[in-house]
Design goal:
The protein is an alpha/beta fold. The chain is 37% helix and 17% strand. The protein contains 10 helices and 9 strands. α3 links the parallel β6 (111-116) and β7 (134-140).
Length: 291
């Protein structure tokens, strides 16, 4: 990653777009965590927690920029991923503890969390471990501990990853989107957006980190359900109606188990339903965060 600045906080001014947001690094317990920080200073920041194998360049620029039009947004990397140091954890518990430590190291006393996929597992665990730290929670393309099929993410994903290699397409085409014309168009547009940033890009994930994160996902799918009824903050839950990776039934399960949560389901959309419907998702998220 180029131009990595060691800085605990952005000092002044508003960075408008993810495409040119500086890369920062902060030491937490002796480990450097990479992040990007944009949007207006002040107010409750939105912390972004991303999917399996994702680095800073895997956040959808339209969603990041849309949220940053009104809120401070901090996009983060997990330990051992991209330009972050250390070894990738093999449990969601460790990732959540890292996230809490990172948030506190950045000096935030209250945050909103947006967790996508693996990031949604981490966000739930953060909200349960540190309830006073989290004001609002957005969970997308994700499911609860012990949720249906979550321990099969690897088994579902490997054939689609191989298909991507054989067809010379990014595997996210098959993992995140439906095979309809609508889904294929959305996949192409999303993958194009991820390439918009030309300078200061993050390092890709190592195969070791990728496999260690999969262990954490599998363990999450096999662990005992958590008491999601104890989450008493506003929660927005979103997914496509045809999620292959984290089956959409988990989205409905989350909504049933978290009191007063709001549910958004996108039709003819898969795991990446929020990317396919980014304009609507940003609008709903801004309404939710601003309410």
């Amino acid at each position: 990653m180029e131009h990595l600045m060691t800085s605990p906080l952005r000092n002044a001014g508003s960075v408008a777009r993810h495409i040119d947001a500086p890369n920062f690094s902060i030491k937490v317990g002796g480990t450097a965590f990479a992040y990007r920080d944009l949007g207006p200073l002040g107010g409750v920041p939105v912390i972004l927690l991303n999917h399996w194998g994702a680095v800073l360049d895997n956040f959808d620029p339209r969603i990041v920029d849309g949220l940053a039009s009104k809120h401070r947004v901090v996009a983060t990397n997990y330990r051992g991923i991209g330009a972050s140091g250390g070894t990738a954890p093999v449990t969601i518990d460790e990732m959540a503890r890292d996230a809490i430590a990172l948030i506190r190291a950045l000096g935030f006393e209250k945050v909103d969390l947006l967790g996508f996929s693996l990031g949604g597992f981490v966000a739930q665990d953060v909200a349960l471990k540190a309830p006073h730290l989290v004001r609002k929670l957005i969970l997308a393309g994700t499911g609860p501990a012990g949720g249906t099929g979550i321990d099969k993410v690897g088994a579902v994903s490997w054939p689609l990853i191989v298909k991507g290699l054989l067809t010379l397409r990014d595997p996210k085409t098959y993992l995140f989107f439906t095979s309809t014309a609508n889904g294929r168009r959305a996949a192409k547009a999303f993958l194009s957006r991820l390439k918009e940033r030309k300078t200061g890009r993050d390092k890709g994930p190592t195969s070791r980190a990728f496999l260690r994160q999969l262990k954490a996902i599998t363990a999450w799918g096999r662990q005992a359900p958590q008491d999601l009824g104890s989450i008493r903050i506003p929660v927005l839950i979103a997914n496509g109606d045809q999620d292959k990776m984290v089956p959409s039934s988990n989205t409905y399960d989350l909504a049933r188990r978290i009191p007063g949560s709001q549910l958004v389901i996108y039709e003819d959309a898969g795991h990446g339903g929020i990317f396919q419907n980014h304009a609507d998702f940003v609008r709903k998220s801004l309404l939710f965060l601003g309410a």
